[in-house]
């Protein structure tokens, strides 16, 4: 498996370890003027550097909200610090996927791991926010896209911003666990505000970090925390999540190399997982997030269909 160029390297986050809310790597700034509480969260996955660049940009520049509350957090710093340039895909997580354990079952459950401890520490930080931008990137070099549950509040914000123009909507949430943006009241129909994931492009590309910085500005500008108008406009296109396939066998393989956005006809074979054939459930079935290297128990591919 070839390693892509690493255009952005991790930087030392020790200077941002001591936060101001009693949780490491969490920084909060409250304006005199009342307004919404926005959380900008980076590094839910340890090797997704674009969010780290965007969060550091806010802290390095000393950005303060002109109204409301701005919270900036680095989530899985333990995984981030395990980064090895010769194995750059291995620092996504230590034990658990930090983006699938935000249910009370996991958070109040008996298990322990680096990620569970971190999620428990950050639980109130996530719960207290009105609006959340959770910044991610993809293993494959594909165009950026939003991912969010299809609540009107999420659609409204992401459609109001200039980029990216591609939306992956999860009508029934993630079948493989509870992501950060669906924690507690954020996952409910009457949630407090928008909570969305931005996938900024390939993990190690400079362009992904640049997009993360722009979208962060747009998000904060949209809610009036900073003075900023999103630039650009274009045609949005949305896909509906149909199914997330979790790898069951070490021999899982796609029928051809896939990077994402490939389109399959109804019943066309996409992958083989042991005795199971993964076939397109509909025409124009479009795949997202094909795994680079299948790992049993982790997600292999998302099956979606274009929305009108
Ligand atoms: Zn991620």
Give the tags:
binds zinc ion; 20% helix; 308 residues; 14 strands; three-stranded antiparallel sheet; eleven-stranded mixed sheet
- How helix-rich are the residues, as a percent range? 10-25%
Number of strands: 14
From the spread of the alpha carbons, the general shape counts as globular
Strand order of the largest sheet: 1-3-2-4-7-5-6-8-14-13-10
Supply the number of helical segments. Answer: 6
**Low-confidence stretches at least 5 residues in length (pLDDT < 50)?**
none
Which class best fits the helix and strand makeup? Answer: alpha/beta
- Report the oligomer: single chain
Draw up the topology in text.
Elements: E1 26-30, E2 37-42, H1 49-60, E3 69-74, H2 77-80, H3 104-107, H4 114-128, E4 131-138, E5 145-149, H5 152-160, E6 166-170, E7 195-202, H6 206-222, E8 237-246, E9 253-254, E10 263-264, E11 269-273, E12 276-279, E13 285-288, E14 299-307
Parallel strand pairs: 2-3, 2-4, 4-7, 5-6, 6-8
Antiparallel strand pairs: 1-3, 5-7, 8-14, 9-11, 10-13, 11-12, 13-14
The structure holds zinc ion.
Give a brief description.
The chain is built from 6 helices and 14 strands.
Description:
The chain is of the alpha/beta class and 308 residues long. The chain has helices at residues 49-60, 77-80, 104-107, 114-128, 152-160, 206-222; strands at residues 26-30, 37-42, 69-74, 131-138, 145-149, 166-170, 195-202, 237-246, 253-254, 263-264, 269-273, 276-279, 285-288, 299-307. α1 packs across α6 (206-222). Residues 44-45, 48, 136 line the site of zinc ion (ZN).
């Amino acid at each position: 498996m070839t390693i892509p160029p690493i255009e952005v390297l991790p930087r030392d986050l020790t200077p941002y370890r001591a936060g101001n809310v009693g949780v490491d790597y969490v920084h909060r700034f409250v304006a005199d003027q009342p307004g919404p509480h926005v959380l900008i969260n980076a590094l839910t996955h340890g090797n997704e550097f674009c969010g780290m660049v965007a969060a550091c940009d806010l802290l390095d520049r000393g950005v303060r909200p002109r109204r409301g509350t701005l919270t900036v957090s680095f989530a899985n710093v333990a995984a981030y610090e395990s980064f090895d340039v010769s194995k750059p895909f291995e620092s996504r997580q230590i034990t658990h996927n930090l983006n699938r354990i935000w249910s009370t079952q996991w958070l109040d459950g008996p298990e322990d791991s680096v990620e569970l401890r971190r999620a428990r520490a950050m639980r109130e930080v996530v719960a207290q926010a009105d609006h959340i931008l959770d910044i991610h990137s993809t293993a494959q070099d594909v165009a950026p896209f939003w991912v969010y549950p299809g609540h009107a509040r999420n659609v409204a914000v992401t459609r109001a911003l200039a980029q990216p123009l591609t939306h992956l909507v999860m009508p029934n949430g993630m079948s493989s666990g509870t992501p950060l943006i669906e924690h507690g009241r954020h996952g409910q129909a009457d949630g407090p505000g928008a909570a969305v994931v931005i996938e900024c492009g390939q993990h190690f590309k400079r362009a992904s970090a640049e997009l993360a910085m722009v979208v962060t500005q747009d998000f904060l500008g949209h809610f009036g925390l900073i003075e900023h108008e999103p630039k650009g406009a274009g045609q949005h296109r949305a896909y509906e999540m149909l199914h997330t396939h979790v790898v069951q066998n070490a021999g899982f393989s796609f029928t051809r190399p896939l990077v994402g956005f490939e389109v399959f006809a109804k019943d066309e074979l996409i992958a083989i997982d042991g005795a199971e054939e993964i076939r397109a459930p509909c025409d124009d079935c479009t795949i997202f997030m094909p795994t680079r290297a299948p790992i049993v128990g982790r997600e292999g591919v998302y099956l979606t269909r274009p929305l009108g």
